[in-house]
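Quick review question:
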């Protein structure tokens, strides 16, 4: 018996070390105080806004409101150098920061002045956990709209890394940002249970209104990716004045893996026959995931035997399918439940979407490889046809995050900037309650017609 237990423990250790990348937890990383002093949003002398934010890796990220962005890293001698977007390609854009003791930021030769806000930190009760939040309002004492920032699937502190807590207040919008459960200074275990997270978001909206008092005018939700599943659920639990969603899926979480695998095969040059067979596999891996690694193994094993030697098999990656098919049922049964994050795999987003009666803006990334948009676009337009409050906008040629990218010869994408018009679109819609008639870069307004 002892040998069996030891063998199981060894197997578990090997599997955690060698695979199961989709389950590995991320951790908050402290920000180096030598660069944290530079974090802020600056008004350049030509009127432009420049945000300087920490990254989860060492260094800083700058963003202009026209979508240009880059990374800044400091060497051992204190010298700064930049790279374009999310690439490692050297960026010639001149950026100087000065030091913590003598800050002197300048961008493209234009000096900048850091804008000052008076954030109010708070702790409030979510669904069984205590969450750490922060309200940031624009200067003044008049009423302002407030965006409650709903997270994606990230496992780090939103109060540390969410740049909208500076971008929005600099343009007349209040922001309430909070660490999701199990991250930052919030209690509890990290979870992807959309119903729990929606309850937390509803509590955040209530706390934002309480803290803002008479300064709160319209208060609603804004966020990207996983927030597309959470915000409509939160709207059913609360009374928001608006809902803004970027690059989310109006389909089930299982569809994310299914559609990613289809794109994997298209990228590898496989046609409809291979795609149809791969769909059988993603249905089977989805059943395993949805069961909490308790069921569906016989079906998955039969498909391995049937298709495992076909040339398209190893092209499957997806959100999790490419990893699941590498491991035995025993391995999956042992390790899977240990890393269960409570993901609402069977969630149907359409009922809460149809039930949302307040103004809703959904921004699609037209070439999204992480959340492929084809089915979501169709579903959103079907909702917009019967609900005049729903606006659907698409930025063509952008990936997850509304990010423009370059594609290498091997098909790998590298983000180079946010789409021109993306930040102004969010600001106008949340601040003014409508989009302007003028274009937002290359954005296409799909609904209303």
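Suggested answer, residue by residue:
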């Amino acid at each position: 018996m002892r040998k069996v237990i030891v063998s199981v423990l060894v197997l578990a250790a090997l599997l955690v070390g060698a695979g199961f990348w989709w389950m590995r937890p991320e951790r908050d990383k402290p920000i180096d105080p030598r660069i944290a002093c530079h974090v802020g949003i600056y008004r350049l002398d030509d009127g432009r806004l420049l945000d300087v934010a920490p990254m989860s890796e060492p260094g800083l990220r700058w963003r202009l409101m026209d979508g240009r962005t880059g990374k800044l890293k400091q060497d051992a001698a204190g010298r700064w150098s930049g790279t374009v977007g999310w690439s490692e390609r050297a960026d010639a854009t001149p950026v100087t920061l000065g030091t913590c003791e003598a800050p002197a930021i300048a961008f493209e030769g234009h000096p900048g002045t850091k804008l000052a806000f008076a954030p109010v930190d708070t702790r409030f009760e979510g669904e069984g956990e205590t969450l750490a939040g922060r309200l940031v309002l624009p200067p003044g004492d008049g009423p302002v709209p407030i965006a409650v920032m709903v997270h994606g699937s990230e496992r780090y502190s939103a109060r540390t890394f969410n740049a909208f807590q500076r971008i929005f207040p600099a343009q007349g919008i209040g922001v309430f940002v909070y660490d999701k459960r199990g991250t930052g200074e919030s209690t509890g275990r990290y979870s992807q249970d959309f119903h729990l997270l929606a309850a937390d978001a509803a509590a955040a909206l209530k706390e934002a209104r309480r803290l803002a008092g008479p300064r709160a005018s319209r208060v609603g939700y804004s966020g990207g990716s996983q927030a597309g599943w959470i915000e409509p659920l939160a709207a059913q639990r609360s009374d928001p004045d608006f809902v803004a969603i970027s690059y989310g899926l109006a389909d089930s979480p299982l569809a994310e893996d299914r559609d990613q695998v289809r794109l994997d095969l298209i990228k590898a040059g496989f046609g409809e026959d291979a795609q149809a067979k791969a769909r059988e596999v993603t249905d089977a891996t989805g059943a395993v995931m949805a069961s909490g690694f308790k069921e569906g193994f016989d079906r998955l094993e039969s498909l391995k035997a049937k298709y495992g030697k076909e040339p398209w098999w190893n092209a499957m990656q997806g959100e999790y399918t490419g990893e699941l098919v590498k491991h035995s049922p025993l391995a999956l049964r042992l390790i899977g439940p240990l890393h269960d994050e409570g993901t609402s795999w069977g969630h149907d987003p359409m009922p809460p979407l149809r039930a949302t009666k307040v103004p809703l803006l959904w921004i699609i990334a037209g070439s999204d490889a992480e959340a492929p948009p084809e089915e979501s676009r169709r579903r959103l337009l079907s909702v917009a046809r019967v609900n005049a409050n729903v606006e659907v906008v698409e930025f063509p040629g952008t990936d997850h995050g509304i990010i423009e990218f370059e594609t290498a010869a091997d098909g790998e994408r590298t983000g180079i900037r946010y789409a021109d018009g993306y930040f102004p679109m969010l600001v106008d819609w949340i601040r003014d309650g409508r989009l302007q008639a003028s274009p937002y870069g290359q954005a296409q307004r799909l609904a209303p017609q």
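Why it works: Confidence is low (pLDDT under 50) at residues 1-27. The domain at 120-252+347-447 is CATH 3.40.50.1820 (Rossmann fold).
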